[in-house]
TrEMBL record:
This is Maleylpyruvate isomerase family mycothiol-dependent enzyme. It comes from the Bacteria. It holds the Pfam family MDMPI_C. Signal peptide: none annotated. Gene3D superfamilies: dinb family like domain. It comes from Kitasatospora albolonga. InterPro entries: DinB/YfiT-like (IPR034660), Maleyloyr_isom (IPR017517), MDMPI_C-term_domain (IPR010872), MDMPI_metal-binding (IPR024344).
Length: 260
């Protein structure tokens, strides 16, 4: 498994936003999002669109530090409660962010909160921000959800890197607990050859690699469903996946990687 190309990430931000917009059309925008219960569907959409605009502002301005939300034009959402206005606002924000990313290219130095200070980080981050929140919207609207296997795999990879980054920082007590010699988790996609991850909890930190090996607990199922469980959008007890071994260790991981 390798990273997607920069151009593919830019394409996916647009495609995932279009798919999110399709979920929202005709849906009850006041419906509570079960996986983000503090939000309704409209608030979820505004969160995603605001993130796109924020990143677009960072990239366009070649920001060297964080850009406050109040300085991002249109961040708070459309000025109307009309669903058509929300739809247009989402489309405009994604298109503007992607235009800025394409113009800058992958290697332009900009502020990020993470391990690399390049525009490539934001193209990937906005792809998976939209992928996962589209799943939230689909669950709330009770409509089917699918995602390309290479995108689902990269969503897992990126989340592993984020959790690792948080643990390396040493300031999050829950991430710090993701250690303990001898324990391991195996993610095994049953529908995509090679889509497997072995996560090993070492004494100081956790590591991961692609491997087919026996682990303390294994999570098996279609790749999209593995991604949804790993991002806490599908319960590990779902009949769509299979948990073999120490299910409490999987719960332990999910409980302590729930930030963000």
């Amino acid at each position: 498994m390798t990273l997607l190309s920069y151009g593919r990430y830019c394409d996916e931000v647009l495609a995932q936003t279009d798919a999110l917009r399709a979920v929202l059309r005709g849906a009850d925008l006041t419906a509570t999002v079960p996986t983000c219960p503090d939000w309704n569907l409209r608030q979820l959409a505004v969160h995603v669109g605001g993130a796109h605009r924020w990143v677009g502002e960072i990239v366009r301005g070649r920001a060297a530090e964080d850009v406050p939300e109040e300085k991002v034009p249109g961040f708070e959402g459309p000025g109307s409660e009309d669903p058509a206005a929300l739809d247009a606002w989402l489309a405009e924000g994604a298109e503007a962010a992607v235009a800025a990313l394409r113009e800058a290219g992958p290697d332009t130095e900009v502020w990020t909160w993470a391990w690399e200070r390049r525009t490539a980080f934001w193209a990937r981050r906005m792809t998976h921000e939209t992928v996962v929140h589209r799943a939230d919207a689909a669950l709330a609207a009770r409509v089917p959800y699918t995602v390309a296997p290479e995108v689902a795999a990269d969503t897992i990879e990126e989340w592993l890197r984020i959790v690792s980054f948080v643990q390396e920082g040493g300031e999050d007590p829950e991430a710090n607990e993701l250690r303990g010699g001898g324990r391991s988790l195996h993610l095994h996609a049953t529908d995509v050859p090679g889509a497997e991850w072995l996560i090993e909890l070492g004494e100081d930190r956790f590591t991961w690699r692609h491997a087919h090996e026996k682990a303390t607990v294994a999570l098996r199922g279609p790749l999209t469903d593995l991604m949804l469980v790993f991002n806490r959008r599908l319960e590990p007890g779902s009949e769509r996946v299979e948990v073999l071994g120490d299910a409490e260790l999987l719960d332990f991981w999910l409980d302590r990687s729930s930030f963000g």
